[in-house]
Design brief:
The protein is of the alpha/beta class and about 350 residues long. The protein folds into 2 domains: about 150 residues, ATPase, nucleotide binding domain (Nucleotidyltransferase, domain 5, 2-Layer Sandwich); about 140 residues, ATPase, nucleotide binding domain (Nucleotidyltransferase, domain 5). The protein contains 9 helices and 15 strands. The strands form 4 sheets. A 5-stranded mixed sheet has the order 3-2-1-6-10. It has a 5-stranded mixed sheet with strand order 13-12-11-14-15, sandwiched between helices. Helix 4 crosses helix 9, helix 5 packs antiparallel against helix 7 and helix 7 packs across helix 8. Bound molecules: adenosine-5'-triphosphate and magnesium ion. The site of magnesium ion has 4 residues, from loops.
Length: about 350
């Protein structure tokens, strides 16, 4: 242990297809990139959000750290998917102590799990004379224990377990400094989960995690074209090596079917949001996409066409100082979509120092 020296806390995003680690330095208004690592996980290491191979995950975390000279031992990580429940609830006015005492009781009716099995967190997001808005986030305890175990096995200390969709929002806020006139949808398309977060300025209006993502495209290609996982991934990414003989025109309709599902799920989320919002004048102006799944050729344009909204790529390094001698700009722009959640987790890490 290094006494007297402030510990740095990195952001560690354990995704179902790869692990990303980001370390930021500096102050909140002038952040700089200190460390970055990104490595794929073998297929089926994480299934349905559950880490099946704890050793594989911890080995990959260690590889990332040793390959990129990242020595920090403290990390913020995140959870997402259907074991995470996020709700905005409106309560009568009450003191902080009263809220603290009654939060479990209030949360109970909004969370479809036994409270004994979840870890609950909350935050007051707004207050008027006759109401208090509270954002509650709950995650199945077994999910948290599972990710903590993998991180500890790698010799790291998970200091905070955040929620991916909020990390995404943190990443957006720090990079775009939005004001209240800006209403955007943050859309992170991972391998198995899409995080949708409708945000006004720095406030989340609605979030939904959908268990659809890039791996669904791979699955469909794999099953219908009789390919291995690696071959289907290559076809999806437009790298046709080793997959000669596959009819080019067999691919497109398969991809389109999944794109339609993705688009319908986002549309459904917008419909849910509109049905539950008190302020129907708040109109989403654009979608900022991230996640490896968003790199599928033509997907952004197709979503824009179907959802009738501009779609832009979220830049997780937009306001972060990056030393081009240490981090290759070409590589960085290539992996930018995958790094959004990890940057948001790292921002949380800086706040903790
Ligand atoms: N060039 C590309 N074209 C198409 N898809 C791509 C490309 N690059 C990466 N992907 C897909 O992106 C997905 C991985 O994205 P990401 O790293 O954001 O997911 P993850 O964080 O591992 O998963 P999750 O958050 O869902 O657990 C995979 O399905 C992968 O096939
Ligand atoms: Mg992810």
């Amino acid at each position: 242990m290094r006494f007297g020296k402030k510990k740095t806390v990195a952001g560690l995003d354990v995704g179902s297809s790869s692990i990303k680690l980001v370390e930021l330095g500096g102050k909140m208004n002038s952040l700089s990139l200190v460390g970055l690592g990104f490595e794929n996980l073998p297929d089926n290491t994480i299934v349905d959000g559950q880490i099946m191979e704890l050793n594989v995950v911890s080995d990959v975390i260690n590889n990332i750290c040793s390959n990129h000279q990242i020595t920090t031992t403290h990390v913020v990580t995140g959870v997402s998917g259907h074991s995470v429940i996020i709700k905005n609830i409106v309560l009568p006015p009450m003191s902080q102590e009263e809220l603290e005492e009654s939060i479990d009781w209030h949360a109970e009716e909004h969370i479809p799990y036994d409270l004994a099995d979840v870890s609950l967190d909350y935050q007051v997001t707004g207050e008027t004379a006759d109401s208090k808005s509270v954002l509650i986030a709950a995650c199945k305890r077994e999910r948290i224990d599972n990710i903590k175990q993998a991180i500890q096995l790698a010799g790291k200390t998970p200091v905070v377990i955040d929620v991916d969709t909020f990390a995404l929002q943190n990443c957006y806020e720090i990079n775009y400094q939005p004001d209240d006139s800006q209403v955007v949808t943050l859309l992170n398309i991972g391998a198995s989960t899409m995080n949708v977060n409708i945000v006004r300025g720095a406030r989340s209006l609605f979030t939904r995690d959908i268990t659809v993502g890039g791996s669904q495209f791979t699955d469909v290609l794999q099953r219908n074209l009789g390919l291995s996982f690696q071959q289907a991934e290559a076809v999806k990414r437009g790298v046709m090596d080793g997959t000669e003989g596959i009819e080019e025109n067999a691919i497109e309709p398969l991809i389109n079917d999944v794109t339609e599902i993705v688009s319908m799920e986002i549309q459904k989320t917008f419909d849910f949001y509109r049905a539950t919002t008190e302020d129907s004048n708040v109109v989403v102006q654009k979608i900022l996409i991230s996640g490896g799944g968003s790199k599928l050729a033509g997907l952004a344009a197709e979503l824009s066409r179907r959802l009738e909204l501009p779609v832009e790529v979220l830049d997780p390094f937009r306001s972060i100082n990056v030393d081009a001698r240490k981090f290759d700009p070409d590589y960085l722009s290539e992996i930018m979509p995958e790094m959004a959640v990890a940057v948001g987790l790292a921002v949380r890490g800086v706040e903790l120092r």
